[in-house]
Amino acid sequence: MWGRRSIAASKRAGVAIHARHRVALCPSPLSFFPTSSATSLFSSISSPQLPRLRTRSPIPAPGLHLGLTPARSCSAEARMMASADRETLPDVAKPVNYHVSLFDLQFSGSWGYKGVVTVDAKVTRATKEIVLNSKEIDVQSAEVLGKDDLTDDVFAGASLAKATEITYDKTSERVALKFEQELTPSDIVLSIHFTGTMNNAMAGFYRSKYKPVGEPAADTPKEGDVYYMLSTQFESCDARRAFPCFDEPNLKATFDFEIEIPKGQTALSNMPVQSERDGSNSGLKFVTFEKTPVMSTYLLAWAVGDFEYVEAMTERKYQGKSIPVRVYTTRGLKDQARFALECAHRTVDYFSEIFEIEYPLPKADLLAVHEFAMGAMENWGLVTYRTTAVLFDEGKSDNRYKNRIAYVVAHELAHQWFGNLVTMDWWNELWLNEGFATWVGWLAVDHFYPDWNVWSQFVAEGVQQAFHLDSLRASHPIEVPVRNALEVDQIFDHISYLKGSSVIRMLSAHLGQETFLRGVADYLKSHAYGNATTNDLWAALSKASGQDVHGFMDPWIRKIGFPVVTVAEEPGQISVRQSRFLSTGDAKPEEDETTWWIPLGIKADPNLATVDTRALTEKSDTIGEIGTDGFYKINKDLAGFYRTNYPPARLAKLGQSLNLLSTEDKIGLLGDAAALAVSGEGTTPALLALLEGFKEEQNQLVWSQLSSTLGNLRSVFSQNEQVAEGLKKFTRSLAGPAAERIGWEFQPNEDYLIGQLRKLLIGMAGNSGHESTVAEAKRRFDLWATGKDQNAIHSNLRSAIFSLNVSEGGREEYDAVKQEYLRTDSVDGKEICLAAMGRTRDPALVKDYLDFVFSDKVAIQDIHSGAAALAANSKVRHLLWEYIKTNWASVSARLSSNNVVFERFVRMGLQKFADHKIGEDITDFFKSKDTGAYDRALIIVSDNINTNASYKERDEALALEWLRAHGYA
């Protein structure tokens, strides 16, 4: 999954983590169906409204024809051992196959539905109780039948047992079915009748509202003037929100699914449609899907809507024929799915090649979902996406979104093998899914679009973000013990995704990519259709490489934080010392006990491609034969996940030798210098001197790091007018000339990175007060806003020009962008406008903006974007905090329907302050609140504010002194 939720009290959950990040969802206001009204759904077997319960003819699990033997799931012994430190379901029953049937869906009002789930299961020991996971589901009846009691369509003969008591534990999200008769070890069929709700919380089986582009089919779900599509989001623990199930990743099973829908609508699921038949009335039909492979509950998916699609066939043949790859959208949007389709069908073939396992399913569907809390979800055979992660409108969309789509499509398709075919044994090893999918997603994009230079992008964006979070005390190890699955969402963060992928990149560089992928392929083959652990991956990579991968990688996975390598120079040699890096620069001895394996990657001769591959395996070491009078660079291409702290004179020399550095080296040099200034191990004057040397830089990705570094400096020191003005002038001196050189006009067939650099430099120059840039941005905006020239603003420059005009202007400019938000049909238009509106510096408009963000005009999934925009606006970010305090009841009510957005809003909106008093005020305010949805966000906020405030207090005078000495203040 790309992008993701927070946690409840770790004491209760037993999560071994310093600070908590994600949380079990707050109780939802969604209605329940009263048990008192329940009647047996089997009261009239012949009734046409009843679903066909099951088909007895065996259907082989897809993928098994590939010659892969399904891996054995974790042994009973291993499961018993794990249960000691995990809160798992009682191990009395293990699912083998589910048949899920949903019918009588209500497309307005209650949005309820009825369902029957029959589970082929193995009872492993005598019991009178079976416990499943269930949330917001009303179980009306349950019974157990023997396997021999099944005919093709209905149950025959007496049941073995009927549940005499059905009880719920809402805290653990479980339902207990109690029987008078004891169930003995055997194969059984558990049949459960239930009712549920298609909620609007973007979790479980839910509804998404949207504004149709084309004329919808007459029977499209609709309430008032709003149209709906239906889809699912089950990861991590929300399959239980759609039907009762054994909702744990290592309780894999196969799934048969069917659903009753209006005849004019399309139903999708993991597998192709097997058959259709008439429903309970002439306007309805039952759609039945083929049996899935063995998989975890969180990967089951279905969707219903007024869909259309674009299709391409794989070039590679699978069992002698190509596989159809489709991207589905609601009616009128399919043409915007063509770029995603181009990426998808090629990526399926590419991964089949490098993983040495053919894509395991008979089809690959992608679906654009109008309301989606995350970026995308890797459901096997039916991947779901936020619209901006899969749709691109040529000529209207910013080209940056092509980059995003290519990556997110690849990330999710990587999961079809790494996560779906082979699943982590338990949620503590989530990084096996997400870290690998992140790395291999970029690998695929680099393969198809080498001119995008995406590994430099990964270093500038992915590695630096991972560094930032992992430098806080609020960080956690990549692999962290998770006792209760409801708390797992804490680790859907930059550590699992970006640090995980960064250490995979480091390992791949060390072993060699070919060797690394050979080991990955062996891992996948050995554990296909089963579950695996980190140690299983290390074993496969050790075998492929002949090295002790477990030995040198284990600390990177199971220890918190990362090191900084401090370099000292002596005649003819250097000494290196590793220690834990904290953004506060005050690691205590007990926090600095880890000794990491650190590949030093020393390049001592700029004219040679060879790199010294030795590793630092002790706390310190001395390296001879390095002439300190000449050139050398540690951690070439930032391949290793660590900071490097050079002596000031060496840092200055490197800054004067930029022509000898790769793009990744430059990004790493800037990132390291900035982080070390914040921690106090470096200084802001040294950082500014380094930045000054980049005036002639022409690489967009280096400029991206320059922009990020300068943005943080201007944010931290924003309340000191002299320093703020000095940094503004300093930024203008760098970006202004560069913006003038690159100009405003996009050329036909222009390189993607050149176009992105133009947008970046215009934004940087304009926001630092570069007069000609501001004037041209105003001229183009006026032509566009007055209707004189609707093409005056290039689609790639909307964000820069809108932001500049809202920032420099007043009500007129703000309202023009607001109206564009309301009317735009560009898939990325709303994101761009919402961010631009947050650049206003007028307090009255900030109030209007926040009221707008919390209105029904802005989808819940996008509310955190408003918080992020104001947090980046140093002049008025305090008004966001005042608004939150003043309007807490309405703010929390709006956000409480989805904890993903709630956590993001708190974290992104409050972490930019650099004032201890505001930090204390935030802590005091939330003391009396139920912070279950954003516990960890508050700790991250506190860590960031304390870091920023301490940095400001320590270096404010030094920064001003340097700026004055160099004519900027």
TrEMBL record:
The UniProt record lists the keyword Hydrolase: yes
Bound cofactor: record note: Binds 1 zinc ion per subunit.
An example Gene Ontology molecular-function term: metalloaminopeptidase activity
Ranges where the Peptidase M1 membrane alanine aminopeptidase domain occurs: 339-556
GO cellular component, one term: cytoplasm
Residue positions binding Zn(2+): 411, 415, 434
Keywords: Aminopeptidase, Hydrolase, Metal-binding, Metalloprotease, Protease, Zinc
Domain Aminopeptidase N-like N-terminal: 110-299
GO biological process: peptide catabolic process; proteolysis
Record: active site: 412
Lineage: superkingdom: Eukaryota
Cofactor: Zn(2+)
Site (Transition state stabilizer): 497
Annotated ranges, domain ERAP1-like C-terminal: 631-945
Matches recorded under Gene3D superfamilies: 1.25.50.20, 2.60.40.1910, Neutral Protease Domain 2 (1.10.390.10), tricorn interacting facor f3 domain (2.60.40.1730)
Catalytic activity, EC: 3.4.11.-
Pfam families: ERAP1_C (PF11838), Peptidase_M1 (PF01433), Peptidase_M1_N (PF17900)
Family statement drawn from the similarity comment of this UniProt entry: Belongs to the peptidase M1 family.
Name of the protein in its database record: Aminopeptidase
